[in-house]
Design goal:
Strand content: 15-25%
Shape: globular
Distance between the termini: 60 Å
Radius of gyration: 20 Å
Structural class: alpha/beta
Largest sheet: 7 strands, mixed
């Protein structure tokens, strides 16, 4: 006779089964909704995306960080413009970066401990025309999938004044990468905490 404990035991998850569920859910959170962008405007749609993925946003003229998706400010279309993004421990990924296209006032972005940030994301960020004009400060911290290639892609951010890089083990050619970046962006203040 089979023991009751044996009958009630859950079958084991396949290898990576739990991880693949969260990866799938994060991919759903990052799916771009073009109808939503048209309906509420790029800043509101991007705010919804960023908060849904665990990031924070700060609007122009406000010292407060918006943390709660359910408390997003209401008002006329286009009233609230994103000025800063803090994506610490956020699940943002490449497929959601299209939300950044319509943002015209973002001056500061922090990407910290973002497991899905990779070179392709930084390339996409640097090719976003509005960010090429507006972005002044960028911090990339503990994003393990970023390599020299991603950092070099940032040369297209012509107004970038400050770049902080820390704990990026994928950067192998530090001296060459930073020399090329500083030649492309001579006004750039580069702060490094890489070992």
């Amino acid at each position: 006779m089979m023991a009751l404990g044996t009958l009630l035991r859950k079958p084991p998850l396949p290898p990576g089964g739990c991880r693949s569920f969260w990866g799938w859910l994060n991919a759903v959170f990052n799916k771009v909704d073009h109808e939503r962008i048209r309906a509420v405007g790029p800043d509101r749609a991007a705010s919804e995306w960023l908060l849904r993925c665990g990031a924070l946003v700060r609007y122009r003229g406000s010292p407060q960080w918006q943390r709660d998706y359910n408390a997003l400010p209401a008002g006329p279309l286009g009233r609230y413009k994103i000025e800063a993004i803090n994506a610490t421990d956020a699940c943002i990924m490449y497929r959601g970066f299209e939300y950044l296209d319509g943002l015209e006032h973002v001056t500061d972005i922090r990407l910290e401990k973002c497991m899905y940030i990779q070179d392709q994301c930084l390339q996409r960020l640097s090719e976003t025309h509005n960010l090429q004009r507006s972005l002044q400060q960028l911090r990339i911290i503990s994003c393990g999938n970023v390599t020299d290639k991603g950092i070099l892609a940032l040369h297209k951010l012509g107004n970038l004044e400050y770049l902080y890089l820390s704990d990026l083990p994928g950067i192998r050619e530090k001296e060459t990468t930073f020399r090329v970046l500083q030649q492309a962006l001579p006004k750039l203040e580069l702060e490094l905490d890489l070992e």
